[in-house]
Amino acid sequence: MIFFLIFIFALFIYIFLKLKLPVNEKIFNEELKISVIVAAKNEVNNLPNLIKSLENQKYPINKYEVIIVDDNSTDSTFKKISELIKYKSNFSIIKVDYKKFEGKRGALQIGIEKSNYEYIVITDADCQPEKYWLKSISNKFSEKFDFIFGISPFYQKQSFLNKIICFDNLWVHILTFSFAIIGLPYSASARSFAFRNDSFNKIEGYKNTTDTLSGDDDLLLREAVKNKMKIGIIKNPGSFVFTNAKETFEDFVQQKSRHTSTSNYYSNKIKFLLGFWHILNLLMLFSPFLFLINTNFIYLFFVKIVSNVVLIKILMKDFSYNFGLIETIYLQIIYELLLVVNYFKGIFNKNKW
Question: pTM score, two decimals?
Fold first, then answer.
């Protein structure tokens, strides 16, 4: 039984290592016309950096528009952004007066309906996309994909909390990207998410994603999978979308538990695979406590620690992270424990936008 569990664990590691395989993407010279939609609520301090990064895209100004939807902010978001984009012909801002859907998806829906182009790209107000972000998305759409998502790391700093958050984000990327590579996409970050407008309409937009207030991107992806749409990833340099991590543990847990709670609405296949993976990891983590029952249990612990260290060292730079050996060991233990905390907190917490 113990060696069977090690075998299953090794299969997961093998799948994750597929992320290291080179991506043979075709290069298309045509720049597709793109609408970038941003839902903003009390983001007056973050949007100037986003606007600057979107202005700096290596993409023809006449081939993309940026629509910022102010979702009833109580700060000076609307006034500030109106001033910043006053002389930018491809930027516009909309004030929400009525929403078809609650929360962020309602604001995004307004932006999508006001968009002029077929290809819709979503990001968050506190993000800073790299300069080849739109070019990479256009290139991927030229391969006839319906939905696309990309890499969205946090800026890595030296604080203990930041290390925890970045390590968690790294594992999120490893899981979501590797599952997508084997044909089982289940989650995408709203910081770098794109789709064809006609594909969005074919699945009736956000209509079937109202199971929970959060997770509009994951549930939209779920509906795309149900409708057998073609889903791709971008992970080439210059296409990352960066943002700052939360600065307090409370804010991080609140954000993470909200995201984790969305997993209750994944497909049964994905829930089984993710559940099995996380339970297996917890069993391996606590296996030393079973040493008195069977001395072979100790192998589970060492296989987990060593395998995870090697895996993280191989993949971390592909997602713009860097962790030392000791950090990789203790952070994976913290990561596993916080998964349990965030899952149960997400069940009982009421989500807000």
Answer: 0.91
